[in-house]
């Protein structure tokens, strides 16, 4: 879709079209393409403001004098969300919040203030204006809660309550000073919460260390948030509350039971990431009392074993998302039952080092019609996963899988890549980083024919479009019942040589980091996806400028590109690629030894959208050019330039 704006002339012709038609045309675009298109001319911009496109628009910006103007500019939108960072207690921040209240008061859907240190007074000037706020994120705003006086006056509470009576989502994570008092005051203003996050807080689950007695005995603590108070809130708001996040707290098995058993509470989502004290038994009790859970995150709960997996598979019949990541005690046991859950869409088993996948294949195979229609699967660092399992999963999940993470699955080879390109045609995200055995022929989909010569290459991208039809690409027969692949079939697949990576025409993200055997041979031929947004070719010692130029030319939608630790990338490549990378926002060239100021000048000239750039350890670049870059690139937020030109400019500037 890189060409919407490419041709300004065409745009002028369509300027005469009625607004409705332009809106209709824009409706077919990916949001990022639509954003590009909105910059073509006034009428396209007007069309892009149509309500149908605006449902979830979130604007993120740091507090600065220019953001004042921007906020008043948002006035024309029907609804939007704001993420404003770096607010402080000074007058500019105060005026900004006032402006937000004035211009967007009744239109604001969500508000988050990360990395800020605002005062109670500034926030109280704003909150009462936000009459249709659905989502409020006060994560980490210690400045607000430190004094303990937030919302201590009834008159303020009344104003805030009047505005926030319909608030659905409240994020109070990572607040060092949240206490029973402030928590009760704030939640008394938000009586209909649907989602509450208290992740990373010091909640007194068993004993109140300040009082030295069980929490149940203390009425209202002004120093800590207690289980008792949390339980009170859950009881009061049980009719609306569906999602709770208690990740990174020291919740005990006993406390989880207390929460799970709140009368009338029906949770659909529960996050318990990193709650290291939880046991299998506590999860069994949870499941017994909360059988409606659809999303469960019990990643990094390192005590849990396969008993939990079995309980989940038995008890949560409407489960759609589960993360079991980093639970190294989990083995194959129970995974067959889990993949037999027909509701399951997302499964994260990353860093479950003992999982080999055989049971998942079994579950998917045996439950046939009622098997999980997985859309997202992460098997990152499951080193026992091998080609046979990947091929079988490919075959069984071909009609649904959109995201597959095989990062660091070191036993995965070209055969897996072949199977992925053959079966998983709906993939949008594919991560193969650190699968060091993958070679060109895997990506090219051919064992013998990997040496497609450079002459064809020079004819440009037209040849690659038909590459998939050159006679040896045989698409799978979708009529067949999906079934696991046998060793014999795997060998046949290898001999017949199938599809190349080009077959994955919907790919938006591809990670080939440290697949160190890859060369220009495959990259220049099969990384050719018009919707590709994110690509990592980091740590590929054999690729040269040819790969970079080819990728830039073919993947014009790229917003993020990593080439760190690629010694073969030089100024020639960057200079030739930059004119095609107009949408690039994130570029990583760290440890590319052959990059000099010439590359930076090319970026300054062409890649006007750059937001982050990493040129650490590019020893041939200079501080002067970095200054120039900063003055010429309007969106540049972060430039990592440690150890350039032999010195660390962060010490100089
Ligand atoms: C865009 O919308 C504004 C306000 O609705 C209107 O004044 C202007 O004429 C429109 N421009 C075009 C080119 O349609
Ligand atoms: C985005 O909008 C859709 C439709 O209005 C809504 O269902 C969805 O929950 C919204 N997503 C977010 C993140 O707000
Ligand atoms: C690869 O798989 C085999 C078994 O199929 C296993 O013995 C070996 O340890 C695995 N390799 C790694 C690095 O885990
Ligand atoms: C890049 O630099 C290395 C030394 O750091 C050199 O050996 C290599 O030939 C250079 N490559 C190119 C393409 O200039
Ligand atoms: C760039 O890549 C290196 C190594 O792959 C990584 O350590 C670094 O964090 C990346 N830089 C950014 C800004 O993401």
Automatic annotation (TrEMBL):
The keyword Nucleotide-binding does not apply. Residues 11-57 form the F-box domain. Keywords: Leucine-rich repeat, Ubl conjugation pathway. One of its GO terms (biological process) is SCF-dependent proteasomal ubiquitin-dependent protein catabolic process. It comes from the Eukaryota. SMART domains: FBOX, LRR_CC, LRR_RI. One of its GO terms (cellular component) is SCF ubiquitin ligase complex. This is F-box and leucine rich repeat protein.
